[in-house]
Specification:
Layout (H helix, E strand, L loop, with lengths): L3 H19 L16 E9 L9 E10 L2 E2 L5 E4 L8 H7 L12 H12 L4 E3 L2 H16 L7 E3 H12 L2 H5 L8 H7 L10 H21 L1
Parallel strand pairs: 1-5, 5-6
Antiparallel strand pairs: 1-2, 2-3, 2-4
Helix pairs in contact: 3-4, 5-8
């Protein structure tokens, strides 16, 4: 019987080659290059709401990580002018008003800047599924595909780390592991920032990733 991991790797390679074939603009083939060793990009975005189909991104933050260091001085922060009016609830959550976004980029210009910034490096975040889905909305018209970058979720990393520390009887009992951002940061003895700010959330995700990566690879 063939090794399932080999089969899984083969399917990943096939999917990646198919994405490359579908790429609409060859200027973005750099997204498929081998990423620099021990480099990642921590990301977060703020949106007008939680509906991927209807809501829009209004800010994106991306922080390079190299080895164990956060390169915050080289970060990318983008404000995006939304097409729709911001709701009062949206302003209360992320504290960005319509007037704060008047000079923001349009979504396509922001997407191009983001793509050139991240390159082929893996993307790191907390509950990245939503952020990536929102970013895919603005990159798809340019690329004709979704982001091909590898994605690493610190929430999943933390769960696996805590689960593997449990004795077998607790593992089989489906032990409850607190995955809230504030709880995760406290348990890892890391500083917490004000939430619902793209840079702060990206920075916290980067700190958690570096700590978890070190814990897993030294245990």
């Amino acid at each position: 019987m063939e090794n399932p991991l080999t089969i899984q790797s083969w399917f990943k390679l096939l999917k990646r080659e198919y994405q490359k074939y579908l790429l609409k603009d060859n200027d973005y083939t750099f997204l498929f290059e081998d990423p620099p060793e021990n480099e990642w990009i921590a990301i977060d975005c703020e949106t007008t709401g939680l509906d991927v189909r209807r809501d829009e991104i209004i800010s994106i933050a991306a922080i390079p990580i190299k080895n164990k260091s956060l390169l915050t001085s080289e970060r990318l922060e983008i404000l995006i002018k939304p097409k729709q009016e911001l709701s009062a609830q949206s302003v209360r959550v992320h504290r960005l008003r319509t007037c704060d976004l008047e000079q923001g980029l349009d979504s396509q210009t922001a997407a191009k800047e983001f793509l050139h910034f991240i390159g082929s490096r893996p993307l790191v975040g907390y509950y990245t599924e939503f952020d990536i889905a929102m970013i895919n909305k603005i990159v798809y018209p340019i690329l004709g595909i979704h982001l091909p970058n590898r994605q690493l979720d610190v929430c999943n990393m933390y769960y696996d780390y805590k689960f593997n520390q449990l004795p077998p009887y607790q593992q089989y009992a489906n032990a409850d592991i607190d995955l809230r951002f504030v709880s995760l940061m406290k348990d890892l003895d890391l500083p917490s920032r004000h939430g619902h700010d793209a840079f702060n959330d990206a920075e916290m995700a980067a700190l958690a990733f570096v700590k978890l990566h070190e814990l897993v690879h030294t245990s």
